[in-house]
Amino acid sequence: MKEGITIAGTIAVDEIKKIEKYPNQSELTTIKSVMRSIGGAVSNCAVSLARIDGELPIDTLAMIGEDERGDYLKERLSHYKNIDSSQVKVLGDTPFTDVYQDATSRTFFTYKGNGLYFDESKIDYQQLRTKIFHLAYILLLDGLDKEDKEYGTKTAKVLRNVQKLGIKTSIDIVSENSDRYQKLVPPCLKFTNYCIINELEAGNSVGIALRNGDGKLIEHNIRKVLYRLKKLGVKDWVVIHTPEGSFGFDGKEIHSIPSLLIDNSSIKGTVGAGDAYVSGVLYGALKAFSLWEAMQLGTAAAASSLFEADGTSGVKAYDELVKMYQEYPKRNKVEI
């Protein structure tokens, strides 16, 4: 009997530098602190899920290098008895990301390393034994972003093969400034059960902006984007998460869930908040929650991740997250 979740794709080490402010080109800025944490969807989501439910079976499917960063990732994942890393392969250099974080924003410089070689040949379908298969990040996994004559992309082919096994699929996308979204994302949506992405990724995937030039959320476009993503083939849930709140569509109802209000003095970092949100929603999907209940759990998971500088150490257990969502003040609900 299938149970649990497989997290596949991008794994990395995050080298996090807090800075005074992001400099203009050729300018100097001061690094205030330096720390290291696990990064990428595979480690972030796996650990977040393990912290939400210490008994949940979690399989990880990725590639690490036979190097110091790879050893660090293995050691960190081994802290959780319910994370199975037997499908993690060792080859080449471990990917890493330099994260520069000031008071208002984060900027990422990534080294793809062996992530360049993660493709369909690295997936043993006979070993997949979970109910949900989460693959991330589209646009960052070069081997899977390649064209496939039958399915559009290799990612789409993998998702189709997983669905044929009776396993539900989930995707996430990396945020980048490019025109690749509308080529690489729509083919995957035909074979996706849960599409859980941020507003930049959602808007770019369908060519409808969700923020204006001043960075303000274009609220009246959110419904259009949800409908468009669902029409492109998502079978169960489309969810868009933003700092202001999250928005979901299950084919029948649209839900708007406000974010929790966290005092700025309590926020130690925002790295990994998106993956924490995804983890909460996927846990809800696995446990047959309604969409709005899963979105509330994701909202609390993302908020709890802000209490620590890395992306996972602040994520709380399920009962604490439920209590946190009930008790914390919330932003005004965004009407769409």
From TrEMBL:
InterPro entries on file: PfkB_dom, Ribokinase-like
UniProt GO MF annotations: kinase activity
UniProt keyword Transferase, yes or no: yes
Key word Ribosomal protein present: no
Domain Carbohydrate kinase PfkB: 22-308
Gene3D superfamilies per record: 3.40.1190.20
Keywords, comma-separated and alphabetical: Kinase, Transferase
PANTHER family listed in its UniProt record: RIBOKINASE (PTHR10584:SF166), SUGAR KINASE (PTHR10584)
Protein name (record): Carbohydrate kinase family protein
